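Before any further analysis, backbone shapes were mapped to integers, which produced the following:

***
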Amino acid sequence: MRTTAAACVALSLLTLSPGADTLNGPEQGPDAIVLGIAQDGGVPHLGCRQDFCVAARRDPSKRRLVASLGLLDPKAGKRFLIDATPDLQEQVERLGGMPDGILLTHAHIGHYLGLAQFGKEVLNARGLAVYCTAAMAKFLAANRPWSRLIERGNIAIHEIEAGREFALTERLRVTAVRVPHRDEDSDTVAYFVAGPRRRILWLPDIDRWEGWDRDPAELVRNPELTAFLDGTFFSRDEIPGRALDDIPHPLVPDTAARLSASGRPAAAVYFVHLNHTNRLLWDETAVRTLETRGFHVAREGSRFPL
């Protein structure tokens, strides 16, 4: 991706971020880096007056960025983002530099709003590769301001087909898989990312496991897989006055029970996309209880070999 001279600003590496890294120096990787773990509104969340949100407004260390995964291949000199979140600027810094491409999962605000930063008003990028399904591409092309990014050449759409593997680099290969979600404006996909050593599944949103054409319990029997799964809600009573049936996501305890019904999962399983109401953001006892069953909460800055 190229930027105009006027918009080209040196990006400093966040040296205090445990996940940030440059692509210079001795060859390593490829790796994935967790760049955010929160639901679309992040933490603190607009309108939230819970203790955790109040504390996060006072203490930046308690902030949680919107869920996103970075991919690094030093040998190829390439960086990629899964989803362009409202926290894109900070996540690009944590990635260590501008991405060479962005993979979109779906058209809910936490997953594509960051694309606006590549427009004329901010970076004025040139030809940033955006990988998405035909339905997502149609949505972007039919609506402002996203269509303007395409018309001006700020982004270049690369349509992908669910179930068909494509290469980001020689060492990073990706397969999109459809998942049932609230598809008001586009379809929804998760991504399998395969490297020389391991595979990652990034699946931040799904309505319910019963509606998926894959068995998640079977997937997590693979010891070479690291799975990041929808952990939006912990309990049904988290949002007073709103029915979770209107915003369905599998509850974390239910997912854990499903995946461990036949024993401890062989894969490394991390919950991600946590709503600001989810106790796993602040309740260390709940986190430890989950860990005793073989599950984890994703942490920003964590790196995973691929």
Remarks:
- The two ends are 24 Å apart (CA to CA).
- Residues 134-142 form the longest helix (9 residues).
- The chain has eight helices and 16 strands.
- The CA atoms of residues 240 and 277 lie 10 Å apart.
